[in-house]
Amino acid sequence: MGCAGSRDKLDETSKKIRKPKAWKHSEAITREQLTRMREEFWDTAPHYGGRKEIWDALRAAAEADLTLAQAIVDSVGVIIQNPDLTICYDERGAKYELPKYVVSEPTNLIRDSRKDISNL
């Protein structure tokens, strides 16, 4: 017995992280470009508002496997709005929006096989 509002709150905080859906960048990019975009986002993310420790936890979660990512967001009390981590809230209600490129790779990522061969 309980009100629907409290049940919704429980469901919201217990959402499980899922692998993001496949997506395509507006133009094909290299892994180096993707890494640069990610670094630029994480360097500026705390300036969008919210708490730095939550941004740090979200970065760690975005770069981890699903099980570890779930443990990270649960440990800092992040409320997951979208299961792919693109929209989350902290316990104070601050919103954290992550672009797709920080949580997964685009389907049109250019894989430079020449670099892979030269590293052998």
UniProtKB/TrEMBL annotation:
A Pfam family it matches: UBD
Record field: compositional bias (Basic and acidic residues): 1-15
Residue ranges of domain DC-UbP/UBTD2 N-terminal in the record: 14-112
InterPro entries: DC-UbP/UBTD2_N, DC-UbP/UBTD2_N_sf, UBTD1/2
Annotated region described as Disordered, given as residue ranges: 1-22
Protein name (database record): Ubiquitin domain-containing protein 1-like
